Amino acid sequence: MTRKNPKRKRTKALSSSSVESRDAKPHEHGTSLEEFRHFRERLNAEILGEGNLVINRFFALDTRTYEAGALDVRTKELLGLVASLVLRCDDCVTYHLTRCAEERVSRAEIFESLSIGLIVGGSIVIPHLRRAVDRWSELERLAR
Amino acid sequence: MTRKNPKRKRTKALSSSSVESRDAKPHEHGTSLEEFRHFRERLNAEILGEGNLVINRFFALDTRTYEAGALDVRTKELLGLVASLVLRCDDCVTYHLTRCAEERVSRAEIFESLSIGLIVGGSIVIPHLRRAVDRWSELERLAR
Amino acid sequence: MTRKNPKRKRTKALSSSSVESRDAKPHEHGTSLEEFRHFRERLNAEILGEGNLVINRFFALDTRTYEAGALDVRTKELLGLVASLVLRCDDCVTYHLTRCAEERVSRAEIFESLSIGLIVGGSIVIPHLRRAVDRWSELERLAR
Amino acid sequence: MTRKNPKRKRTKALSSSSVESRDAKPHEHGTSLEEFRHFRERLNAEILGEGNLVINRFFALDTRTYEAGALDVRTKELLGLVASLVLRCDDCVTYHLTRCAEERVSRAEIFESLSIGLIVGGSIVIPHLRRAVDRWSELERLAR
Amino acid sequence: MTRKNPKRKRTKALSSSSVESRDAKPHEHGTSLEEFRHFRERLNAEILGEGNLVINRFFALDTRTYEAGALDVRTKELLGLVASLVLRCDDCVTYHLTRCAEERVSRAEIFESLSIGLIVGGSIVIPHLRRAVDRWSELERLAR
Amino acid sequence: MTRKNPKRKRTKALSSSSVESRDAKPHEHGTSLEEFRHFRERLNAEILGEGNLVINRFFALDTRTYEAGALDVRTKELLGLVASLVLRCDDCVTYHLTRCAEERVSRAEIFESLSIGLIVGGSIVIPHLRRAVDRWSELERLAR
Asked: Global pTM?
């Protein structure tokens, strides 16, 4: 959740022209991806700048957690995604969906992961599932 | 949470004229009821259209859950309402409040149900209680 | 959750002879109903005896919550049961099941209530559903 | 969470001139502090006006909980803050941050409290940590 | 969580001789694996025998969720494991660890999955992490 | 939650003679304090011995979190206690109660902290409150 500058494999997704195509179908359920990123980066900078040792080390450790090891990065991001979905954190889901898009996870893989979160977490997860699917479609449009 | 077209017993509540009266007292705590419904229907369609068997069956099963059986529909909707409140899901609360309005549950019954959610779930529930009461009053205005 | 001495309509259920029949089929999933009650009563006494105003008033308020009003006692106990199930608190489920047995709620009504908790809360609820069903069967044996 | 009129030690913080300085750096993550307060006060009045005994007593009891006793008010507000953070309730966090500002808790004390919430609650807490820090900075600007 | 008879690839793990080696190092944190399985199977039979349509369909759907699709079975079981860990359900963790053992997931893969659950869920997860590691070591001893 | 060897200021509390007095009033609600400690230390050793970098750093960071800074150790332990109570983790509550006893927190301070957890978390917290009070009384007996 805390990486400030992950290598972006799909920079095209973030170009201004694709942002326009996003605007063509306005986002309805709250913060846009661009607003989310801007707020996240601004506050991460403010938090890390405070110099609280525990918080700063936790942010660094959080980044390490998703690096390749016995499991590859894609699997780890899917684990982070499903954990975020059952704990019902939209911002965390958005973050991991963004990373999954960068790792070229397929739409079918995303839906199967979300289906596990839905069955484990129940109907209370459905509003978050809707926002996750909306985000994923937004990311697909940006990547075109 | 997933029914696409529940029989509406109180169609008057959804007429354009009552929507105007709602606008006279603007909704302060986020998405309006109309925006919530639109987003929900659009995303339900997108999700179900994907054809993921597990998700689609879960959505169908969710609908079956609240049908009359040993318990009547009103009691089941109140059970769904209180479960949604203690799990602190505003969208789920909104959905069950809408269904309760359609089933002509009284304001006193709603408040007693909410009071159980408050006592079981504690003060952390209060912000969701506020939004639930605001939604209920909105539904009452729409039904007039 | 805190009532110390609810009027018991089915005192036969708590007679020593029925306790024997329970012992014939030993309880597998942890504390027996008798141990639960003993621990609960002993600790409630210790807690209330401490004289902490906030805690004591909360315990009193908790009792008031389930008294008849716009909704009857049975409906309120079912609301407490489902709230407890989705929040996955075995002791709270046991308490409300005991009250439901006293209020002569039927097995079918219990199962429909539990099914709502299962759908709202997801598969994570299943272990608690198992223990709830085991408790209910225990209460039925005690009531024979 | 429910006090309607806590003694405000720092009334300057709420003066119209400081509200202007807030507007100079617009709030990005949702409801402004002023909107939050307005909605909270309007709905508290509507809820308490309903006359539901359980809800009204709970609101009164909630206020009593944070009064000085064996622990002082500042410590109690920090306990409320961390409990709200690990339960991931932004509105509750905002409320306790406001009270902490009134009690002249320092920025370092706030960050250490938040760090405990982060370690106990994990990375799922991070989006709420960001909003908490953003709120605290907003409160500091208002108090200048 | 609900499969009654998954194909067991490692039947040796469940032979009586390996059960003896388990008993040589007694299990300290509650129910043994054998007790867990027995209780689970007995109650699943009682629940499914009740014939509640919603519950029975949910149990069937839960089984379908972890079948191979765009993602393979091992990845899906790891997703179920991490979801169970962050939601802090020991029985669910035990179930998915058992399935992971059957699918020959390595100890390093289990630890990396658990580490994601720990970082996402925070220190509140640690007691469940301990029990998960104890279970996994028990499963390894049974498989020797 | 993870410190292996906190400086013990009240070693008398752990002497064998006081353990006897504990046994005179047997513990009813599960694992005894001694069993809890033994299991915790054995598993912490197994987990840390595995050498997973993320887990080991998190355990180290968890220890740092409760060291004195802008807030003193006692306040931080109370923050950890209330966070653990509202998240309903008995083992975490036991750990922080043990540390509070070592830091000579008074019974009244413990009860006020628990009362905040009760009000924030609601009646679902009550079973954990009972076990917390039982643990605290056990710790007081051990310290005599």
From this structure: 0.87
